[in-house]
Design brief:
Low-confidence stretches: 3-21, 309-313
CATH class of the largest domain: Alpha Beta
Strand content: 5-15%
Shape: elongated
Radius of gyration: 23 Å
Number of domains: 2
Mean pLDDT: 86
Helix content: 40-55%
Number of strands: 5
Order of helices and strands: HHEHEHHEHEHHEHHHHHH
Strand order of the largest sheet: 2-3-4-1-5
CATH architecture of the largest domain: 3-Layer(aba) Sandwich
């Protein structure tokens, strides 16, 4: 149950790049790519199994097997919580014994939360229904699914944004159970601020019900290199490693191992390499991409970026590529 989803199979070398509209289509054609490899929208087709994600998936699998009421997954912005959530939802969809519900924006009132869950489960959720009526509808619906041998798993993304009164309503909802099992299992995905909310007097009652928890960390230097290569391959790249070893180190250092930051920088690096007419990302591309971004830069790196940018004609051409004028 809940085995990690198989990696997408890369197409054969003979496959032609998919036509893409817009100026970026020329960049994809230049590298022989079917699609952009470093988009910011979470896409399970590009999932890279980092150690921290494998551990979190294992925690989720054990907790859901055990029938725990609450499970918590936390991580800094950009560590891949939403992608992990979607990976879990895809795994649950393949399991006949589970029914999943997903709330991506939980900044809701208690009544809105109940209506949203009822809507996810295709239950009656009229606007005029009172909270007590919604509770009754949900309890009946969950009991009906339980008699069919099915478990409902509610996944809540950005859980740190839930108001305290909504968290309390969620705790009360978790009271629904039979003599042997919970009718509803709840997985909270949130930033570290979620822990702060759970430590307050209003949040402690819910925190006491969390049976399993995992924290997503950043990618190590080796993993970041594998991550970049994996996404390029999934997008259709067929050459040797597109990012040189020094460029990979610079992207790891600059991103702090955060996949989202790495995606932003890697995307710019491809534009820079394209602007210079090359097919390999070099160290000076990474430096210029970092200079073009709003990430904090160590003074020693900033000096190197400035020197390289001023001295390298290739870097100037690459800047033109970033501005939308390939040379």
């Amino acid at each position: 149950m809940l085995a990690p989803r198989p990696q997408p199979v890369a197409p054969p070398e003979a496959a032609a790049p998919r036509a893409t509209r817009g100026a970026y289509g020329m960049v994809l054609e230049h590298f022989g790519l079917r699609e952009a490899p470093f988009g910011l929208t979470p896409d399970t087709g590009f999932t890279y199994r980092a150690d921290t994600h494998i551990e979190a998936l294992a925690t989720l699998s054990v907790a859901l097997r055990a029938g725990e009421g609450f499970i918590k997954i936390t991580g800094e912005v950009g560590t891949g919580k939403t992608l992990l959530c979607r990976t879990l939802l895809a795994a649950l969809a393949a399991e006949p014994g589970f029914v999943s519900a997903y709330l991506p924006h939980p900044r809701l009132t208690p009544r809105e939360l109940l209506r949203a869950l009822a809507r996810e489960l295709s239950l009656r959720n009229d606007r005029r229904l009172a909270e007590t009526d919604l509770h009754g509808i949900l309890e009946a619906g969950l009991l009906a699914l339980a008699t069919q041998g099915r478990t409902v798993v509610l996944c809540i993304d950005e859980a740190q944004s839930m108001p305290p009164e909504t968290m309390e309503a969620l705790r009360l909802l978790s009271n629904l159970e039979t003599e042997k099992r919970k009718l509803l299992q709840i997985v909270l995905f949130g930033q570290p601020e979620l822990d702060l909310h759970l430590a307050t007097p209003l949040g402690r009652a819910l925190a006491s019900r969390i049976g399993f928890a995992a924290r997503l960390g950043t990618l190590g230097r080796r993993e970041l290199g594998e991550y970049l290569n994996h996404r390029m391959r999934m997008a259709g790249w067929r050459g040797p490693e597109a990012f040189s070893a020094p460029a990979r180190w610079a992207l790891w250092w600059a991103s702090g191992g955060l996949p989202r930051k790495a995606n932003i920088l890697a995307h710019k690096c491809l534009l820079l390499a394209y602007g210079g007419g090359g097919h390999r990302v070099r160290l000076h591309h990474a430096w210029v991409a970092l200079r073009d971004s709003e990430f904090a830069v160590h003074p020693s790196m900033d000096w190197r970026v400035r020197r390289r940018t001023e001295a390298s004609g290739a870097a100037s051409a690459a800047h033109a590529a970033l501005a939308g004028a390939p040379t």
